[in-house]
Design brief:
The chain is α/β, with parallel strands linked by helices. Helices cover about 25% and strands about 10% of the residues.
Length: about 120
């Protein structure tokens, strides 16, 4: 992650395949957000559950190369966008739609391996 933290942006341009399949929440976006890298991603599948548009990243319609180019210009041309994301990325719902969030915490605030109620 040390090298990722030096990146100007992380771009994930996802689309549906010819059978209509698409991924869930990409781990690469979680890593980018944790590293404080501005993320630009397709508004597809569960990505909007991780990235809140114009807050923890910039979302664009899948397959829209003009919107992707515009989003990249915004991120690369505006240094004020990156600090809003910061370490942890300001992710929604603790970083995932459910289950473990980056950093080993679970929704509800317990750490992995902690006994409930203790």
């Amino acid at each position: 992650m040390l090298r990722l933290g030096r990146a100007s942006a992380l771009v994930l341009a996802s689309v549906q395949d010819h059978k209509g399949r698409r991924g869930g929440i990409p781990v690469s976006l979680m890593e980018g957000l944790v590293a404080g890298v501005p993320c630009v991603a397709s508004r597809i599948s569960a990505v909007p559950e991780l990235i809140e548009d114009d807050r923890s990243g910039i979302l664009f319609p899948p397959g829209d190369d003009q919107a992707l180019a515009s989003a990249l210009k915004r991120v690369l041309g505006n240094g004020d966008l990156a600090p809003k994301r910061g370490p942890g990325g300001g992710t929604r719902r603790g970083g995932r739609a459910g289950g473990d969030a980056p950093g080993g915490t679970r929704r509800g605030g317990t750490r992995r391996g902690d006994a409930p109620g203790g």
